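During the first year of the project, the team set up a workflow for recording each protein of interest as an amino acid sequence followed immediately by a discrete structure-token representation. This format lets reviewers and collaborators read both layers of information side by side without switching files. As required by the reporting guidelines, we include two representative entries from the current panel. The first entry is reproduced here exactly as it appears in our internal archive.
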Amino acid sequence: MKKIFFILIAIISLNISAQKLHENGKYVDVNGVKLYYEIYGKGEPLLMIHGNGGSFVCFENQVAEFSKHFKVVLVDCRGRGNSSYQKGVELTFDLQVKDINLFLDKLNIKKTNILGWSDGGIIGLLFAIKYPEKVNKLVTSGANIFPEGVVHFDDMKKTVAKLENKNKNHENDLDIDLNNLDIYYPNLKYSDLNVIKSKTLIIAGDHDEIKGEHTLKIYESIPDAQLAILPNSSHSALIENTTLFNEIVLHFLMQQ
């Protein structure tokens, strides 16, 4: 039976600090880029994948607690954080899924749990579709499967137009590419999610940037998925509602 969690809690406001190279941080060459990563804890792997314009620093409120139970693997996606970027190569989710697959191969991780936020959740869903044998449990927060699932989709187009108008010296190239990623991709259908075999938890804030009906349909399309809607939460539920977010995700990941 599918499970839906509706839980009340006050908002916790937290700031995300700038990412710094850690003493145990490393780089790995995959798919034409250098990906920066850090690992904390021991045990079953838990790969955390961040959102569009940020880095894995977005998970700073999860690492300490989650690394008590899992080997937490944090990676900066191409062009973000401390990872490098390929100019002239279109940024797509399929490209990033390939990055992650090769990254896991380089680290000799055969199978992993995945926690993806925003675009990281999209990557997680696509990865579970393409490489089901490599995913144990999947958690997504604030993920969509086609651009129109975003509340302020038209605003992203306006942002790109402004960036392009002020891009005489190509200083906005990366920002344009990042915005175009979410304007044109992903292009899944709900039925594409039917093949996901991993146990899956779909999370969203009750006033998320992803449309509520879109999140609900994603949940309904994945066999035996679970759904958690965090109240008084925006797209950044993992930052605003850290205690609740961590409790729900850890409960899901650790249950048999």
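The second entry, processed by the same pipeline in the following quarter, appears below.
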Amino acid sequence: MPRVVVVSPPFASHATPLSVLATALAAEGADVFFACAPEFAGLARGDGVTFVPLTVTRNANTGVAEATRQPAEEAARLREFLEATRAGAVPTLLTQARHRRADMLADPEGVLNALRGLHERLRPHWYVTDQLGFAVTLALHCMGVPYATFCPGHPGYLPADPDAYFGVPYDWPASLRPSPADAGLLLGAARRNDTAFTEAFHDFATRHAPSAPAPGRAFALCSPHAVVHAYPEFSWLPAPPPGPVRLFADHLAAPPAPLDAAWSARLDALRRHARRIVLVAFGTFLSARHDVLRAVAEGVLGGLPDTAVIVAAGERAGALADLAGDRAVVVPSVPQQALLEHVDVMVHHGGGNSFTECLRAGVPALVLPFSSDQFAVARDAECAGTGVVADPNALSASAVPALLEALPGDARAHAAWFAARLRTRGPRWAAGELLRVMGERTGPAGRRGRASLPAE
């Protein structure tokens, strides 16, 4: 059987779908090692999956970013990022562009050495690595070992053509489209990052693997064999460049576990006072924007008397505790996938996991994007007809009822159509296809032999 190492950065929103893919690969017959920071050992579940401790970046997010213990410098960058989200889309993306080198390529030599040691111990046939783990991708490229790329968010994370840049949405939702001046500032910052990262990749590869092919454009570096997208293959997305096989898995979510007794009781209590339930969750980072969480909850409670609300508030649950009542539940975290089987609408931040989980469950959404690829994801929600988009920083409680009522009448029908489609793919489909492609692309060694580590 093929031996595969799945390498994940220490971020819950990335490690969780990668662990689901690891479990699916094992179920399809592979011998799988899940390599991540020690805090994520619990994600290595199922027969055939073994956990290997491996830390590939200094910053981390074990579930709620504000609650994760990390170095002071990383915590300061998180605070700066969260503050930038209050200034709007372009200031946030500019802040992220400025942080990118420290966040994503902090210690490439250390990562290369760690992976070389891991490779000598385990001798896998090939690897799977997160596309945003740039140091890991660069190390695997220099090592000359076969690997597949996992793209955790919007497919635009991998630039599709020379005029596309990492950190610039392929398109914007109508309510957040920047001015030409702001768009120019963002494009300039992205181009500078593109040049700087590409030069850094080239210099690193020249020092550590002078006989290897040039890595080329840094943000476009990925497996020459296969890229797994935890995303649907929408017809309006820019066509990817030729090269690796693109596997659009639609989602990488494990089947939702049944709600426990406590959550079932909460839902029953809410249904006694409301006809509809809205789930509000902004992922593992942006629950810190409790001002927006409050605006949504107060808008539902004050303007939609037949509607209840469940709020995932992270570390800010205490600050929002006054909202709790007959029609409101406020908790630090929620079993999101399980709840999506029981709610009527979700309000989310445009994270790739939340978007695809809503599609999988057939739940329409109000999307309030703050950062990263969320603007591109929000645009796709508009194009798919499964949601409406608003600017979170311009949101008032009084506007929320109209936005929720503005969800197109056929939004649930569109979401249900996607739900039926997404159930034909998912983790097992992705694992089976990935094993097939990597076996075909890497030859007999990819299926039976051991990949050898070239001398430096």
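For the second entry, the following points were noted during internal review. The mean pLDDT is 89. The chain has two domains: 3-71+98-252+426-447, 261-422. Both points are flagged for discussion at the upcoming steering committee meeting.
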